[in-house]
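Question: what's this shape?

___
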Amino acid sequence: MASTDPREPRTRVSIGEWVARGLAVVLLVPVRLLWEAVKLCGRAVVAVCAYTVERILEPVARFVRDRLLRPLWLFVKDVLWGTVLTPLGALLMAFLVRPLRQVIEAWLWRRLLRPVLVALWRWVLRPVLGAIAVTVEWLWRWCVEWPLRRLWRWVLRPCATLLAAVAAYGWRGATAVVRILVVVPVVFVYRTVLRPVLRALGACWDFAVARPVAFVHRRVLVPMNRAAADLLNSVFGR
């Protein structure tokens, strides 16, 4: 059966679209092809480098390390260094370097350093230090010691003497005041009031407490203790 659906009308392409498509094909396709070619070349270069490193350089490096460098190092370390270089270095150190160093040090000290230091001390440091010492002594004598002496003689010593005199007379005055205002009344109160009262209290205590207690102890407690002791001895046979 024939289809009854109407056919879709074909879309017509304008000249501008054909021009745009042509420009895209002309401009973009070569760039795309160039980029793919660059990527392919990069991958090829990386693959060639990796193949070269893995298949050529690494075996050559291992061969050089294992067959050349390591035996050479062992030879130098064990044979050349131990049997030749070490004794030669010790010989050079003992008979050349050490004596040469001693000679240089002795020459430097005797011929150069010691004369320079002696001259420096004699002509520079000692005069300078002497001048500094004289200057310091002069400054101490006239800027410190002389003003301190004058200050002590004319200010501090008179003030100290005056303060000592004031303190002495003040102490005497204070002692006299304390004696008059405190000591004398206290002594008077003690002699006229406290001592008679204390004596009376002592007499009352002796009459009311001490004598009765002594009497009870002597007349009652002691005989009772003796009687109790005799009773215990007679009962228990002690």
About this structure: The longest helix spans residues 15-236. The helical segments are 15-236.
